């Protein structure tokens, strides 16, 4: 995109209501000089930019700037955007706190057995779980795999609750204050003696299928997997096998290899599995966070500056 270009009309692709309705985002941006309209991907000819959730091929022929309201962009053909001279930005930094809260919420749920009580409520059952089942979160440990924006948020929140946290990343990360950060090649070692394994790493060629049978075999039998990143990081078949064989205690899964999760998946019926519909980042202020970022980037693009979170 030319640094001299100005953003005058921006389409908000009609993605439904995940994670916030397009019309809501349009209203939040209504005070700006630029015009914002909710549109389909095939009606962008008079637009300078588009705000979207996913890539659509029509973007490559129509606009100068594409902003995804997600952090992930693995479905965007970046070389094609680069060849077309289109600027692409994402929303890294928007969801970190929200996903971090969800991850810690899963940890607390497992520690206190809250999911079992919720299940009992549906059956009008007044029954405590066995006395030896609940445990104190502040006396547990966790391994956070991926220490970027999401991982750092989990580390900070779990640490406040007294969880002993170690990390796994492709680079040493000192600013998070962790005593131990393992290289990804030592993942099995890193997860071998913790109660929670929390996945917050982005999906790349290197992380696809990263967590498989060898990792589940290395985890303790009383350990839980929490995935708030991308489903394809986990070998889902190996996960089902590990749960069925009692190799791990349970899992909280917000993301899956294929979404929505197949109604026939055995994960639905497992007592120690929590299934959520890719909702870890949902919050009533998600749209406001995105709107602030979009407003900043329009200003920077209009002034010939590099936008925040520029991917291409």
UniProtKB/TrEMBL annotation:
Residues 41-309 form the D-isomer specific 2-hydroxyacid dehydrogenase catalytic domain. Belongs to the D-isomer specific 2-hydroxyacid dehydrogenase family. Keywords: NAD, Oxidoreductase. It comes from the Archaea. This is D-2-hydroxyacid dehydrogenase. The keyword Zinc does not apply. GO terms for molecular function: NAD binding; oxidoreductase activity, acting on the CH-OH group of donors, NAD or NADP as acceptor. Residues 105-280 form the D-isomer specific 2-hydroxyacid dehydrogenase NAD-binding domain.
């Amino acid at each position: 995109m030319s640094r001299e270009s100005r953003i005058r009309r921006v389409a908000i692709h009609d993605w439904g209501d995940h994670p916030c309705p397009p019309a809501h985002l349009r209203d939040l941006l209504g005070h700006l000089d630029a015009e914002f309209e909710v549109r389909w991907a095939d009606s962008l000819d008079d637009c300078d930019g588009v705000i979207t959730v996913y890539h659509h091929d029509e973007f490559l022929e129509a606009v100068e700037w594409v902003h995804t309201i997600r952090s992930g962009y693995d479905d965007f053909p970046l070389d094609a955007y680069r060849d077309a001279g289109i600027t692409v930005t994402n929303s890294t930094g928007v969801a970190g706190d929200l996903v971090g809260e969800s991850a810690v919420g899963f940890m607390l749920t497992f520690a206190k057995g809250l999911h079992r009580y919720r299940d009992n409520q549906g059956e009008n059952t007044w029954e405590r779980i066995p006395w030896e089942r609940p445990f104190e979160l502040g006396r547990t440990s966790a391994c956070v795999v991926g220490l970027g924006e999401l991982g750092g948020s989990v580390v900070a929140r779990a640490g406040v609750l007294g969880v002993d946290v170690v990390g796994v990343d492709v680079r040493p990360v000192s600013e998070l204050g962790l005593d131990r950060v393992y290289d990804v090649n030592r993942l099995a070692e890193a997860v071998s003696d913790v109660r929670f394994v929390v996945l917050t790493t982005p999906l790349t060629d290197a992380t696809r299928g990263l967590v498989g049978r060898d990792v589940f075999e290395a985890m303790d039998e009383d350990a839980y997997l929490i995935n708030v990143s991308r489903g394809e990081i986990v070998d889902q078949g190996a996960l089902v096998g590990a749960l069925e064989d009692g190799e791990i205690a349970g899992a909280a899964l917000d993301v899956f290899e294929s979404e929505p999760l197949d109604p026939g998946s055995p994960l639905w019926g497992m007592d120690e599995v929590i299934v959520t519909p890719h909702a870890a980042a949902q919050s009533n202020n998600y749209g406001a966070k995105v709107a602030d970022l979009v407003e900043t980037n329009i200003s920077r693009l209009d002034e010939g500056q590099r936008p925040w979170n520029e991917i291409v």
